[in-house]
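Re: the 73-residue chain
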Amino acid sequence: MKLSIAGMYFLLISLTIGCSSQKNSSSSANNASSQQEIISLSKEKWQWMADKNVDKLATLFHDQSKFVHMSGT
C-alpha cells in the first residue's frame, strides 16, 4: 500500500529530472549524476521491499500517508 506511493514519487522525480535535463543542456553532466543517484535509490528501495526491510522503508513514508488505488478507490 505505502510502497506504491513511493514508487509513484520516484517516478515523478525521475521524470522531472529527465525534463529539466532537456531544457538546460549546459548542466547535462550534473543532471546525469542526479539521475543516476535517483536510479540507484530506486533500485535500493525495490531491494528493501523484496527483503521486507520495513525499517529502511519507513523513512520514505509519512506516518499518516494513505494508499489510493489508481482507480480512485
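The longest helix spans residues 28-51.
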